[in-house]
């Protein structure tokens, strides 16, 4: 994709960078990722036409995901790559060609300004939000290649979607490589009573595994995407509790992958 030299910068200098690494010297093999960590909308976009009550809704970011990821970063001593811009500006877990990379509507919440974008507008969002995030994550992984890094992305989801209640409480998602996801899912009953499912409430066919496909699969890195129902992480206490649960599940999953107990932990390729 070519970028117009005339496209204005989306983020003011005081709003940059678009992405950050927290705990960059962390010693863990795990690299944590939180693509939807922020609800921040640059001043230049004038709130995207959102209603005031929607600015901090789940449409703008993954509620509780950053808090969980931050606590996990401490517990695992792992670096965390996090976006600092709302996914309504650009969803860093989507490639530029995806229609929902800049959503005009998220479930029932509309972002009117996103329905009127020119090609130049879209290119500027990619240039100023997605590309810095993508480059920072790629650099973080590259700097740790000798330690055989593991990619773990942290997300949250709403209890009700289009009026339907979601019974799943914790989702363990994978794309073509399901090694770590299946190992973590197998470990879940030892750490939590939460209803835990594989590839729920979303899966690869929903287009949600872009980060895994872009950064982990080509390099053969162990990887998993974790989805937490956001009514469990709406405050600091909840986020801490879930982080403790996930810490145990991730450590057990990695141990199982390092010392496989049988064919359940062999690498599978989806058809």
Your description of this structure?
The protein is an alpha/beta fold. The protein has one domain: Aminopeptidase, CATH 3.40.630. It is built from 5 helices and 11 strands. The strands form 3 sheets. The protein has a 7-stranded mixed β-sheet, with helices on both faces. It has a two-stranded antiparallel sheet with strand order 4-5. α3 links the parallel β9 and β10. α1 crosses α5 and α3 crosses α5. The radius of gyration is 18 Å and the shape is globular. The two termini are 30 Å apart.
- CATH-scheme architecture: 3-Layer(aba) Sandwich
The CATH topology annotation reads as Aminopeptidase
Tell me the name of the CATH homologous superfamily: Zn-dependent exopeptidases
Order of helices and strands: EEHEEEHEEEEHEHEH
Structural class: alpha/beta
User: In angstroms, what is the radius of gyration?
Assistant: 18 Å
Tally the structural domains: 1
Q: Which tags fit this structure?
A:
alpha/beta; 11 strands; disordered C terminus; seven-stranded mixed beta sheet; single chain; Aminopeptidase; 271 residues; 5 helices; two-stranded antiparallel ribbon
Brief summary:
Helices cover 28% and strands 16% of the residues.
Fold blueprint:
Elements: E1 19-22, E2 30-34, H1 65-76, E3 80-83, E4 105-106, E5 109-110, H2 119-142, E6 150-157, E7 160-161, E8 164-165, E9 170-173, H3 179-187, E10 196-198, H4 210-216, E11 223-229, H5 236-258
Parallel strand pairs: 2-3, 2-6, 6-11, 9-10
Antiparallel strand pairs: 1-3, 4-5, 7-8, 9-11
Helix pairs in contact: 1-5, 3-5
